[in-house]
Amino acid sequence: MGSAPLACGALEALLAAGQDTVVGVVSQPDRPKGRRLELSECPTKAYAGSRSIPMFTPEKLNAPDSVEILRGLNPDLIVVVAYGQILRPALLTLAPHGCVNVHASLLPRYRGAAPIAWAIARGETRTGVTTMYLNERMDAGDLIDQEEVAIEPGDTAGLLQARLAVIGGRLLVKTVAAIAAGTAVRKPQDLSLVTWAPKLTKTDGRIDWNLSAREICNRIRAFDPWPGGYCEWPAGSGTFLKIERAEPVDLDGEKIPGLICTGRPGLVIRASDGGVLCRMVRPQGGKSMDGASFLRGHPINEGDRAG
Questions:
Q1: Beta strand extents in the chain (DSSP E only)
Q2: How many domains is the chain built from?
Q3: How far is CA 8 from the centre of its chain?
Q4: CATH assignment at residue 185
Q5: Cβ contacts of residue 60 below 8 Å, gap of 6+?
Q6: 86 in any annotated domain
Q7: Which region holds residue 203: left if phi is over 0, alpha if psi is between -120 and 50, else beta?
Q8: What would the pLDDT profile of 170-211 be if each residue is shown by its tens digit?
Q9: How confident is the model at residue 262 (pLDDT cuts 50, 70, 90)?
Q10: Is residue 307 part of a domain?
Q11: pTM for this structure?
């Protein structure tokens, strides 16, 4: 069961290992996407479809008819990776070996829907992948195995997700083999270490210039590819500028968050403790460009601010 790109890595690893038979794949239904709101299939459905694996896309996974369809597949084990629906008791107990989950964090840290993004946003330098048994609570089941990885200074959520997908697939194959052999461990989570990674919203990408320059740059990386780091340009105009790549820089003078700096090479905007050098930006309705090129077409006046 999976919907996001992370799930494709897990499915690909299971198929490549060839140790077990994937009897079916469950993903979210097609959803409207893009400006034209055209129906689009999720990455896992597209991946499974190209390999002729039986597909099931229920709107309500826990509905009795959905449960019976899955029961008919007679699975020994259910694997859940970035699926998007909560499993209720009828599904948690359907397979003899239960349900296992691949989660893109070192649980119990960063439980929730967006662990990769929030780990980067909060300045973590290490993260990883966890396999665990599912229960009725969010990401609260017993741990089976973990693998740790560094968060590199240039990592965006998209880049880190691609690495974790490979690691998660490898860890899943190892976990499934241990379950089949009866050697998988069950380690309860330490509740004193729980942190949360809530689902991202569009407004999470709106830059708060009252944060430190480092925090702002972390969030720009964390919210790439979605929702992106963006600001109103200039403040009060109703138009927006997406900042795609940035780095903190030292600035002297009065600290006025959001102030667009003149007399500096490139596009620099003040944060609470310094400045943010905007290396790559994309104006609303336009194409990506470097900050200096943007400034040549969008001159600034003394006192202009980003919102």
A1: 25-26, 31-33, 38-40, 55-56, 78-80, 99-103, 126-133, 143-150, 229-232, 240-249, 267-270, 275-283, 289-290
A2: 2
A3: 14
A4: 3.40.50.170
A5: 66, 85
A6: yes
A7: alpha
A8: 999 999 999 999 999 999 999 999 999 999 999 999 999 999
A9: confident
A10: no
A11: 0.94
